[in-house]
Amino acid sequence: MSKHEVTLFGIGALLYGLLELVEGVGLFMRKRWAEWLTVIATSLLIPVEIYELANPPSWLKAAGLAVNVLIVLYLLKVVREKREPRAATPA
Q1: CB-based contacts of 49, cutoff 8 Å, min separation 6
Q2: 83 confidence band (pLDDT: 50, 70, 90)
Q3: How many folded domains does the chain comprise?
């Protein structure tokens, strides 16, 4: 890798670390925006996984993509359920 590529990779890693720090603090403080940030941050890797799956394809890459998509769908379900109050069940 060239010096320029290493610098760009380092900056990207620092920015991603900052994103994870903000996300973690927000979740610790039980902030609603942090839940959505978690969904967004988790889904950011899906395009990269799709690209990697195409060059060259493998079952392991497909499984990783499938797991990531399932995790994003689960997180969306959890965040949306928190928004909608559940109907009271009769006693």
Answers
A1: 61, 64, 65, 68
A2: confident
A3: 1
Average pLDDT, stretch 14-42? 95
Helix (H) or strand (E) holding 11: helix 3-28
Mean pLDDT score, 44-69:
93
- Three-class DSSP category at 37: helix
The pTM score is 0.76
> Domain range holding 77?
3-83
Q: CA–CA distance from 83 to each of 38, 63, 70 (Å)?
A: 16, 31, 20
Of 13, 73, 81, 17, residue with least CA distance to 42: 73
